Amino acid sequence: MRDVAVIGIGLTKFGELWDKSFRQLITEAGSKAILDSGIEGKNIDAMYIGSMSSGRFIGQEHVGALVADASGFSHRHIPSTRVEGACASGSLAVREGFLSIASGMNDVVVVGGIEKMNDVAGATATETLAMAADQEWEAFFGATFPGLYAMIAMRHMYEHGTTKKQLAQVAVKNHKNGSLNPYAQYRQEITVEHVMNASPVAYPLGLFDCSPVTDGAASIVLCAADKAKKYTDKPVKIIGSGQASDTLALHARRDICTLDSTVYAAKMAYKKANITPKQIDVAEVHDCFTIAEICAIEDLGFVKKGEGGKAIENKITTLDGSLPVNTSGGLKSKGHPVGATGVAQIVEITKQLRGEADKRQVKNARIGLAHNVGGSGATCVVHILEAV
Amino acid sequence: MRDVAVIGIGLTKFGELWDKSFRQLITEAGSKAILDSGIEGKNIDAMYIGSMSSGRFIGQEHVGALVADASGFSHRHIPSTRVEGACASGSLAVREGFLSIASGMNDVVVVGGIEKMNDVAGATATETLAMAADQEWEAFFGATFPGLYAMIAMRHMYEHGTTKKQLAQVAVKNHKNGSLNPYAQYRQEITVEHVMNASPVAYPLGLFDCSPVTDGAASIVLCAADKAKKYTDKPVKIIGSGQASDTLALHARRDICTLDSTVYAAKMAYKKANITPKQIDVAEVHDCFTIAEICAIEDLGFVKKGEGGKAIENKITTLDGSLPVNTSGGLKSKGHPVGATGVAQIVEITKQLRGEADKRQVKNARIGLAHNVGGSGATCVVHILEAV
User: What is the pLDDT of residues A19-77, one digit of tens each?
Assistant: First the structure.
């Protein structure tokens, strides 16, 4: 397999972007990534687009071709493929782009992730998101993701003594990081009291335990590592990529407090990168709900199972802790345009490894990890990146 | 790039399958392909699923993970990824599976394609299919695919003298082939008079010029070519794979009678296979409407631009012609469950190259081609296969 590097990154502002269309968002992110990479349009061999439910959200399928067209590349007829795996759609697009270069088919690939969730045709965003759950076992009976993650949280509290206050501390940390990120949807800091006293959504999760409904797009340019220096003097290598699946329905898991898809995807990525979790300097993890970040840092091997709550309490994962997590603000504060999230995580890790993360820069960050989950954990993708 | 072979194939019956669910269809096709291949579940490294609009058709996204789960593979946590490119979703899944093996990441990959179109939640099938067209330039103004392809047909008649009778002859040929295919939706033969006198849909296209709304699934097992003999004594090698894009909206093309995405995808596939169109012994092409088959045989280089109608009239593409096209019955008679179509084409070509096509067997077929189109041609994928 050929080595692959990230050579360009681009993001739109995340938020309720009522005045920007799907086409505007993805071309804004893509053109920023292309400009940042040093490539020209003629260098692009292929495109991959992650989007969870463009069909339901905006009434448009076939968005791979749409994005190539809207970007002005239709006259070059380059292949453009949409990939979907619920909220992990973005990182699946990254992985397919990575594989297409590793195979030798392509040298330069532009990857995009996008979701336009606020201006919704037909259903509410929560109804559409519930289509990432198991229809026959969950969605038909009214289950939505806040409810499913609330069950995980309740069990985690029962099994491991995790507290509502520890959940709140995840949100407080991520809002603090998000306050330093000009692209984040929510830039205000919040307190533990704000989170604890917020309107309940699905006990024990309140409003501030949940990631928001977000419009936004992210893009990266991938390049065969041996050709990256032609375009940029700051390539970041993808040294590990792992993907794993699990049951679509939560109830069928052996332990609902563990996302086995994370465990397996991480194992695959660590093995390929030939590193241990201890060597990670900075991580973006999938905090769609506060409990999800606690499970993630356990399942990724950063702390032992059951000790995630304590780790948050002990500030291990804050910006100046021993392993900063979600320096971008995470899904919680930066926002969660589902198809864009996995690509946006790679954008943040690349910024950190290039030393371009400004006020949220982690000192001496050399190896970073991105962790993206679909649904309640039926899909997980983990990428490990290293500055070269 | 490592060589890749098809080592197993499986199909469900195509048709209005009101009594079979999405899960039943895809697992039926998948288990047939796995049984046919000689592999066991433990050999599978990854899965790719092509589906155009599971979100709109059945209210379920995240169908990559769903299929892995429904197939009983969730405990093995193998990666499973959904790919979408409108009616080319199936062949995009084939291509991503192919690339993941070519890269060295996987040795054995199961590819599935599926659409459940009759039992539709919310919209009609035609409305959902129109989401493969350009929403802002076409769908919002009421354009649906019969209308778009009717415009192509009108122009083709004007530019090249193609006749309504020649269009009809495509349908007659494909129904004849379909009558020999036990998996086809429509097994009755029809006459030119049937087609010419059928209810108009969008002039010049009548009811029998259009492919039907179909439920169905198809599956293939791909394997690194150097390991294929471990499992089967009849591997079929993928010697070429090409993919190309074009404008999403029809009006923006340089010539609506030519699908440039086909021209470019075919060029890429022929080059990789190191062959010319003359060397193709059998082809499955994307005849969503009769005019589409005429364009396809021109754009693939089988005949010159404008001579497709004459080629049909001269019976070049019949079962005993010099280049049999759509021996399976094509989308027209076999049926067109959109996400399954691209995979089902590979199933038919593999049958032909193995000599297992029974009454529709093409004599001495050694090299076959599959051509799958998304929308009115914004996406095209071409694969070339060879018996080894």
Answer: 999 999 999 999 999 999 999 999 999 999 999 999 999 999 999 999 999 999 988 99
Cβ contact, residue pair B64, A74, below 8 Å: no
CA distances to A12, A13, A118, A337, B251 from A16, rounded to whole Å, are: 12, 9, 6, 10, 33
Q: Which amino acid is at A235?
A: P
A51 and A63 in contact (C-beta within 8 Å)?
Answer: yes
Nearest of B271, B320, B266 to residue B297 by alpha carbon? B266
Query: CB neighbours of B308 closer than 8 A, spacing ≥ 6?
Result: B160, B162, B293, B294, B295, B296, B297, B298
Here the tokens at position B129 are 């299919």
Among candidate residues A156, A286, A336, A371, the one labeled active-site is A336
What is the distance between the alpha carbons of residues B146 and B292, in angstroms, rounded to a whole number? 11
Give one word for B315, left, alpha or beta, with left for phi > 0 and alpha for psi -120 to 50: left
Residues on chain A touching B243 (C-beta within 8 angstroms): 46, 79, 81
Give the number of beta-carbon pairs within 8 Å between A and B: 211
**Tell me, what amino acid is at A196?**
M
Distance CA A165, CA A266 (A): 28
Tens digits of per-residue pLDDT, A172-221?
999 999 999 999 999 999 999 999 999 999 999 999 999 999 999 999 99
User: Within chain B, how many helices (H) and strands (E) appear?
Assistant: 13, 11
- Structural domains in chain B, CATH included, are 4-121+214-236 (3.40.47.10), 128-210+239-387 (3.40.47.10)
